[in-house]
């Protein structure tokens, strides 16, 4: 790969020399920002998911993944795959071809779409100032009507008083909500786990026990309970808290985003939890886990996955020390851990080293976990690693659990979650390459160069693989072992998120607009 050629094609590279340690959300509104994690970043129902309660939105292995898309990845295994059909392979936002409706968002949007009970939820910032009396920089979750894109209500979160080290300006909310029944759960820009009513205040009721909302008009969000991970648990998020929650039906699981301070070396709260489980009904903390201690490289922006592997329930998390951890959902005990960095890898400030953290979300398919390493995109391109892990083992399984691996110049740093469908893995790296691997062996079938940085994730739906880029293009390829590009759609400005299909409609948002796409 010609790194110089690729670097010249990406606007974010201009900031690397001047700010080698800057956080991804550090850019001004016109340039590239990191969807961390917001990425949060994605889901097939091939895994038999065993839940503790029937209201968890569980999807059994044999059940097609159609209908609502209720969380990051569509299901707890986080596989970026949908079984929806009739999804167009082409559209045109200028000519409005196959555009059902569009809705304005904030000026920067890194949250991914969630569709639930006729409503659409997406995290953004307050650049749109849809509530004219609510001005200035805020974290926002917008709720739209699924049928026509009408704005129903917004949840508003003020910025943290500690400033940009914990809550970087203009980034909004990167967490993708988890929707269960009449509740949504997400992590705010203030490092809070938030449980909110799906109806907001539009029903005329302020559901408790939380009754201290600052904004209480009909168009505002209705918070049911809030767990403040900063004040109550002592977490110190580096630049932004971003995790997208997952659930086993009884508990809500999130990472705390605990990380380094503004000097990018000191970890102010090394004993604070990296991970927390809370009761979904009350918000009561069930358990916390410190996995990394003093080993965090930079920040922690991955999101957890959940599944039953070898008959054993596991919640799986990619941490800021480059290790992937599987925990017992009941108590947080570590079942296994896997180091994605080679023994001689070294983290050097500003992306100049060879060790990386995990930003992508682990994907569970059967007994295997697929996950890769990466860094803040402003650290630039670098050596990466993508692994298939046997998750039936216990203990330190760095050697015994490795099924296959690709890395070095063959797979660069990545913040993208993968998609696994029909025995094939679709994975992308920050350098702009989309790969197709054999899910069992890691054999590479093809590579496609998008000639732009990739922050979102590949998405498989209706026989197609879709991937958005920083240049504002969405590539549509044919699913399968043979490389075939079906089209390239221009969304006019950067796409830092991942497409989502629900109820026969494809949803894609660029930096400031949400598009509903459907065939006619």
Tags for this entry?
5-stranded mixed β-sheet, 34 strands, 2 helices, 34% strand, 2% helix, disordered N terminus, mainly beta, 520 residues
Q: What layout of secondary structure does this protein have?
A:
Blueprint lengths: L2 H6 L27 H4 L41 E2 L16 E6 L9 E3 L2 E7 L12 E8 L5 E8 L19 E3 L2 E5 L4 E6 L25 E6 L17 E2 L3 E5 L19 E5 L5 E5 L15 E5 L2 E7 L4 E5 L6 E6 L23 E3 L2 E5 L10 E8 L4 E2 L5 E11 L6 E3 L2 E5 L4 E6 L5 E6 L9 E3 L2 E5 L4 E6 L6 E6 L9 E3 L2 E5 L3 E5 L3
Parallel strand pairs: 1-28, 18-22
Antiparallel strand pairs: 2-34, 3-4, 4-5, 5-6, 7-8, 8-9, 9-10, 11-12, 12-13, 13-14, 15-16, 16-17, 17-18, 19-20, 20-21, 21-23, 24-25, 25-26, 26-27, 28-29, 29-30, 30-31, 32-33, 33-34
How is this structure best summarized?
With 520 residues, the protein is mainly beta.
Would you give an account of this structure?
With 520 residues, this protein is mainly beta. It is 2% helix and 34% strand. The strands form 8 sheets. Strands 1-28-29-30-31 form a 5-stranded mixed sheet, with no helix packed on it. It has a 5-stranded mixed sheet with strand order 15-16-17-18-22, with no helix packed on it. A hairpin with a 2-residue loop joins β24 (419-421) and β25. The radius of gyration is 20 Å and the shape is globular. The model is unreliable at 1-62 (pLDDT under 50).
């Amino acid at each position: 790969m010609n790194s110089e050629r690729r670097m010249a094609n990406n606007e974010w590279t201009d900031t690397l020399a001047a700010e080698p340690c800057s956080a991804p959300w550090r850019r001004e509104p016109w340039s590239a920002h990191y969807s961390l994690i917001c990425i949060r970043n994605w889901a097939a129902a091939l895994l038999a998911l065993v839940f503790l309660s029937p209201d968890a939105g569980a999807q059994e292995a044999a059940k097609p993944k159609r209908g609502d898309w209720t969380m990051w990845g569509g299901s707890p295994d986080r596989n970026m795959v949908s079984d929806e059909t009739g999804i167009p392979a082409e559209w045109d936002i200028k000519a409005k071809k196959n555009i059902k409706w569009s809705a304005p968002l904030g000026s920067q949007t890194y949250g991914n779409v969630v569709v639930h009970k006729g409503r659409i939820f997406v995290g953004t910032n307050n650049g749109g100032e849809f509530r004219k009396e609510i001005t200035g920089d805020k974290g926002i979750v917008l709720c739209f009507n699924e049928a026509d894109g009408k704005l129903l209500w917004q949840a508003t979160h003020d910025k943290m008083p500690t400033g940009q080290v914990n809550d970087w300006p203009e980034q909004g909310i990167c967490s993708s909500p988890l929707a269960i029944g009449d509740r949504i759960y997400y992590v705010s820009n203030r490092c809070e786990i938030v449980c909110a009513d799906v109806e907001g205040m539009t029903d005329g009721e302020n559901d408790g026990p939380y009754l201290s909302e600052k904004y209480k008009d009909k168009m505002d969000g209705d918070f049911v309970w809030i767990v403040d991970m900063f004040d109550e648990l002592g977490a110190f998020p580096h630049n932004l808290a971003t995790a997208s929650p997952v659930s086993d039906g009884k508990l809500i699981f999130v990472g705390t985003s605990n990380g380094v301070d503004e000097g990018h070396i000191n970890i102010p709260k090394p004993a604070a939890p990296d991970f927390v489980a809370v009761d979904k009904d009350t918000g009561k903390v069930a358990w916390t886990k410190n996995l990394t201690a003093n080993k965090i490289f930079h920040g922690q922006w991955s999101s957890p996955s959940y599944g039953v592997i070898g008959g054993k329930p596991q919640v799986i998390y990619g941490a800021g020390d480059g290790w992937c951890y599987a925990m017992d959902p009941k108590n947080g005990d570590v079942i296994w851990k896997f180091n994605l960095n080679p023994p001689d890898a070294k983290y050097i400030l500003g992306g100049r080293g060879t060790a990386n953290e995990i930003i992508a979300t682990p994907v569970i398919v059967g007994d295997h976990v697929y996950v890769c390493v990466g860094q803040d995109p402003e650290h630039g391109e670098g050596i990466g690693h993508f692994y298939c892990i046997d998750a039936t083992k216990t203990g330190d399984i760095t050697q015994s659990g490795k099924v296959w691996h690709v890395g070095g110049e063959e797979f660069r740093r990545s913040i993208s979650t993968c998609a696994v469908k029909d025995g094939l893995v679709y994975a992308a790296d920050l350098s702009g390459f989309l790969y197709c691997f054999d899910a069992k062996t890691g054999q590479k079938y093809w590579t496609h160069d998008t000639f732009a940085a990739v922050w979102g994730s590949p998405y498989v739906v209706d026989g197609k693989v879709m991937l958005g880029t920083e240049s504002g293009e969405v590539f549509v390829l044919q699913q399968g072992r043979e490389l075939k590009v079906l089209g390239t759609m221009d969304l006019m400005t950067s796409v830092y998120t991942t497409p989502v299909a629900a109820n026969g409609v494809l949803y894609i948002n660029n930096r400031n607009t949400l598009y509903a796409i459907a065939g006619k």
